[in-house]
Amino acid sequence: MTLSQTCRLLALNSTIRKDDTYTEMTINCRGTIFKLHKNIVCTQSKPLAAAFKGNFKESEDSTIALEDDEPEIVDIMVRFLYEQSLDLEATETNTLLLLAVKVYVIGDKYDIGALSELAKNKFEELVGPAWENPSFIRALEIIYKQTPDRTLKDLAIKVITVHIDKLLAKEEFTDLCKEIGALALDVLKATRESGNKKHDPLVGVVLTCTRCNGERIRNGFW
């Protein structure tokens, strides 16, 4: 399929999403209704597809209730399923950083790997400048409580290490470290490693071994 054909197909999907004439399934998220197409949704999400199999209530009336998710985040997920793109706009309740984290979480929850990957890239782009924003602390809380892997954790810890002195002066950051032991441990490990590299007198030193005719030893390791 050529690029122009792909673009036309995605444009068609976007049009289809806005017209519920031929929809076969419904997502009800806290009263917000999404009329969708099974072939679009279920081919990209095994958990959502599984809800329509077997003797589940969802399979009988073709309606899935997502009471634990935010309508705003579900809407972003739905748009991705149809358009294969991730366009985030900050709102009163969610900064761009929080949106990226929450979209990563919902992508992982419903096994939509491509969505999580785009959200990860967006988070990586935003997290560096966002460490001073109060939403950074909230983002950390979500990351450590709701993401099972290291992807966003490692990106966040890199930023924390750079700004650790100023972050430790923030009560909300230290309170979160007290609440979430895994975060505190990651911060401790990262700052210790950073400190060792900074103060190790052998860092940057290149030694030459006379026995191996120029074999070099870097940073104190053979």
From TrEMBL:
<feature type="domain" description="BTB">
    <location>
        <begin position="23"/>
        <end position="90"/>
    </location>
</feature>
<dbReference type="InterPro" id="IPR011333">
    <property type="entry name" value="SKP1/BTB/POZ_sf"/>
</dbReference>
<protein>
    <submittedName>
        <fullName>Kelch-like protein 25</fullName>
    </submittedName>
</protein>
<dbReference type="Pfam" id="PF00651">
    <property type="entry name" value="BTB"/>
</dbReference>
<dbReference type="InterPro" id="IPR000210">
    <property type="entry name" value="BTB/POZ_dom"/>
</dbReference>
